[in-house]
Amino acid sequence: MTDDRKGAAAGASGGTPARRASPSGAAGGTPAPKLALEGIEKSFGALKANDGVTFAVAAGTVHSILGENGAGKSTLMNILYGLYQPDSGRILIDGREVRITDPRAALEHGIGMVHQHFMLVPTLTVVENVVLGMKGQGLRLPVREHAARLAELSASFGFDIDPHEPVAQLPIGKQQRVEILKLLYNNADILILDEPTSVLTPTETEPFFDVLRRLKASGKTILFITHKLEEVMAIADTVTVMQLGRVKTTVRTADTNPVKLAREMVGRDVIFQVRRTAHATGDTMLEIDRVSAASDRGLPALDAVSLSVRAGEVFGIAGVDGNGQRELAEVIAGLQPVTAGTIRVGGVDINTASVSERAHDLGIAYVPEDRHRDGLVLSHSVAQNMMLRSYNRPPFARYGFHDAGAIRRHAETLVKAYDIRLQSIDQEIRYLSGGNQQKVILARELEGSPRVVVAAQATKGLDVGAIEFVQKQILEQRDRGVAVLYISTELEHLMDIADRIGVMFRGRLTGVMRIEEATSESLGLLMAGVEAA
Amino acid sequence: MAQVVRLLFALKSVWAVLAALVCGSFLIMLAGSDPIAAYTALFHGAFVDYWGFAATLVKTCPLLLAGLAVVLPLRAGLFNIGGEGQIYIGALFATIVALYVPELPGPIHIALASIAGAIGGALWALLPAILKAYQRINEIIVTLLMNFVALHFVSFVVSGPMMEEGAPYPYSPEIPLGLFLPHILPRTDAHLGVVIAVVFALILYVVFRRGVAGYTLSTVGENPHAARYAGMSVERHIIVSFLVAGAFAGLAGTFEVLGHRYRLFHAFSQGYGYDGIVVAFLANLNPLFAIVSALFLAGLRSGANVMQRAVGVQVTVVEAIQGLVIIFVAISLAFRYRAGAVGQFLARRAAVEAALDKPGGDGAALDKPGAGGAAP
Amino acid sequence: MIDILFDLRLLTDFLSTSLRLSVPLVFAAIGGVLSERSGVFNISLEGMILAGAFGAAVGAFFLNDPFGGLLIGILFGMAAGVVLAGMGVSLGVNQIVAGIAINLFVLGITAFLSRIVFGAQANTLQLPGFRAFSLPVLSAIPIVGPVLFGQDLLVYVMFASVLAVHMFLYWTPWGLAVRAVGENPAAADSAGISVNTVRYACVIAGGAFAGMGGCYLVLSQVFLFSEHMSAGKGFIALAAVILGRWTPGGAMLACLLFGFFDALQLRLQFTYQEIPHEFFVMLPYVISILALVGLVGKPQPPAAVGRHYRREAK
Questions:
Q1: What average pLDDT does range C235-255 have in this prediction?
Q2: How far apart are CA B148 and CA B143, in angstroms?
Q3: Is C314 at the interface with chain A, CB within 8 A?
Q4: Residue B300 falls within a domain, yes or no?
Q5: CB of B264 closer than 8 Å to CB of B48
Q6: Contact B344/A404, CB-based, under 8 Å?
Q7: What is the CATH number of the domain that holds B215?
Q8: Are the beta carbons of C292 and B142 separated by less than 8 Å?
């Protein structure tokens, strides 16, 4: 059975990158873990991405790193892979401390990584991609020899890959195997996989797990990053849960269950009180009727989702990121077309309405998940961003020209009303804090007396004060009779202010219930894809 | 102290120009002349002397219009390198209207020819625009190729169907007197075209600063996703900005014919289209500054002739100095890479291309393997 | 017109001219292929040709030897490449602006310096150059013989260069690195390849090849240097790169096509003035555009061409 030890074996010193050394360890003692991290710290400016991360992984096991977006998992993996250097802390391989200065060095230590966005050159063939950058090749690249060896390796793991095929023609699942082959061919024994199933369909997942099992059987050590609880339970031997840059726990999957993991992953101390009073709700304002949609990449994202939100009600959508929440918000806002089903606002089918019509004529307010990408133009001023959605309408625009005075007055009013901290409304909005940027978006969206508010991850990346502000705004809208669809990965926040709640998992909406009936355990299970007990 | 440094930094383009002039003075000395005398002759001949300044104005017209043809689409992250071809086709259309439409009252006929020229240039820009907006085909390559086609097509027309009887080399018949653009400086060649060009530059400046269009172009260029969220159509902006740019370049060609040469000559544009790119970058993509940079470039060229006559230094040294000016200015602008026009342009361009990938905006929904490091 | 097909001497002459007109284009196009394959848009081929031509003239003049000219010409071409790479790769200056700047500068400086160096005799120089010679036996083959095997040294160097660059790109590990850098620099970077080093090398080598194109103009064609003698060949070479789908062999064929139509329109101009020769000059460009649109196959430029690469955070 695998042993799960924290801390590294003593005796490692110096930083010479060693080739795969045999495990050091006193005779009769347990061998050093294959990989150990001690006190890894990494900050990007004010953001502390990794805060004293420490755990160890035994050889020949599958170890999962579990956490939501922003937990610090990817930063950690990039450190292991040599793309970033840690501010402090140690990395030990087979008990010996190593310094990983760049990806080539990582590979020399036997660490290889498969990124979420594949690092493949589409116009080159499989074998060309695999041997890219290999040293000591001589004048003429012995493609045929490499191809033959690659085919052997591929067959030994049951991959079905033709070395001479251009990568662009391979389906995603096969491309992923090429990435893995690349690492195996370069003698990696620690494989890091970053959200590997995010590009696979559900049917491709099990064959992928088979691959992992075979790799494990041949002695490889696998680290895989994920936020999907059921995968962790299915394939990992051990798991480290991270949240906000810290390790919350490291356990064997045999000793835990999804509920506990879910709680570690999303649980937070409740640090503020937001008052929610029960009141009567009005008519159904927002209706999602068996809506299906695809993601940006063309993969199915929403699967016959149905829900309805009444006026004066907050409908919370829980779920780990990447289960279709973004697409749900986007189809309502009009940024993503539906492939099936209807959306009705106030009883009116809005499928043919443009983004602009939905915002102004139908009264749909949208607070996007990725505020930098979708909600703001960072190099524009605060004042300009304030009028982004209404740039074409009076009082801002008349006869094709902007009324600078009106734009400024509008911005000044809102800045005061929402207490937005800034130097001047003319400064570029990129310099505002996340919380203040979000206030700008809220101010802009909420001022038009909307009937429906869709807020996607509205508290993401915000500090406590800003979070409280956002929650208050949402409640205020609710009390005014607006139908609010509040999507969040923060279960605690949802449970504070939602009237009803549902969980998104793999594009489906499950477990819709009144908030009084919900518990974080039951929701956590649903988030993990486990049917309610 | 910091203020002084900031100011010095802001003037870095000026330092670059000065540095280029200093290097040029070494070249002048190499040719055995006195740089001070040479530069004095140059600048005097370009800006101070009455007829010299008129010659400068004549050259400024096509340079400024060509510059605007580059500046406008760049705000939306698009590179119009096809100014040359648009100039030729614009000139062609204008000449056709001038020669073959029955004589109308002067101003009307001029206006008609000008509109035709603008349409010609716009049409020549339409194809690359459509290809870019809906097929994501690199507009740089398409416009470059179309330059050649335009050049040779016009060459064909003035060597054959439209050639002046008995001409020693290809050119068209002279346009009727009524179509000559009025002169703005008496007894010189300086014509109305430069005034119109300046007016357009000012209009563009105002549109950029205050117009809704200026705002939407900038949004599309800076963040096409946010532009979609705001309800703007990325494709429409691409097409319209290219059409207007083509119209500007078409007018450059038009005014060369109507105001300066009075005929359509084979290969009459000695690279004005490409010079427009230079004008645009020297002006840091600002239409107001474009007036200055076009004047400057035009002055260098027309002053070079004076310099050669006065001091005996060849005009080619000025060509070399121009090259140095651009090199040094481009380098100086690159020193605030992120904030400089160049860095912004690159970022916008990549953003526009990425946005065209999104469904609802045509184009394959491929995931671009980009320079994406993982987010923390 | 058709009589040309039946008069062997005329036909051989025509094909030979056609080939000779293509040679500087091929050299420049190879330079363009290398540069663009690594992701650097090279609009300064024109300037590089001219720099090479001027260098060849200077070298041949002072060293009294065509090989001296060749050496200096290549060096000058490479120097232009260094400037382009420095501006476009290291400083992140827009590659088109950099290329145009280099063109303008080279245009001016070579014209200026040639007057100083060669003085008044510039137009009557007879520089030492490469003369045509016939390879035994092979050149006796009808038509093909004199055309392919009766040329001067640089023509053979041209063919060898095309082959060499092809082998480099497709058979060597460095060529693989180049192709990767031009398509997906992030992938190349993560494989341990230095993107900037590769780009520098390709642009400078590109400058060397384009410079050789200029050397040919001076050392094999006219044996003197005249201002602006590149006459737009650099831009034609760029079109050839596109038509040739960014491959050395394809670019060579495209250049041969351009050369063919050039020879054709020249002949038409002087013997058959009724046929509009410009159409033949336009034809290759129209074909290139149609190709891009996808009507005649669909060539894809290297995906990362023109984009400055910076690794995210370190």
A1: 91
A2: 9
A3: yes
A4: yes
A5: no
A6: no
A7: 1.10.3470
A8: yes
